[in-house]
Design brief:
This protein is α+β, with helices and mostly antiparallel strands. 60% of the residues lie in helices and 14% in strands. Strands 1-2-3 form a three-stranded antiparallel β-sheet, covered by helices on one side. The chain is elongated and about 90 Å long.
Length: 144
Amino acid sequence: MFHDALMRLGSPRANQTQRPVRVVGYRVEDKQYWLATNRFDLPATDIALIYKLCWEIEKFFGWWKQHLNVYPLIARSSYGFMVQVLGGLITCLLLAIYCHNHFQERVSINRVRELRINIQNEARIVNIQTPELQQQKDYASAKT
């Protein structure tokens, strides 16, 4: 921590905040971070830690979107959220294992796209064959 003060943000005659905010400054690995908050009840170290944890969550969701190519979260409850997150992580781990075992490489978006196209093509083949198989079964059962 190198700074903890109450300040009014903005220019005095233009767009200055009406109420003061708490400005906390801290360093992590030679980088300076400045936070403006309305939390006056917490020590500055706790505010810095909360921001750091929030940033870790943001990095996780950045990774989530980039590597899993997911749609926005659809869950409306904490349980649904956990199901969606764990489902995505399990999918990612299964893809990593599959890519490692079959291609000796890490998961890449190109490999995931290739796998998705292969699965879609196989599903189309199954859908095309299914009516024919059903007709054969119906014909065989009609004979008996």
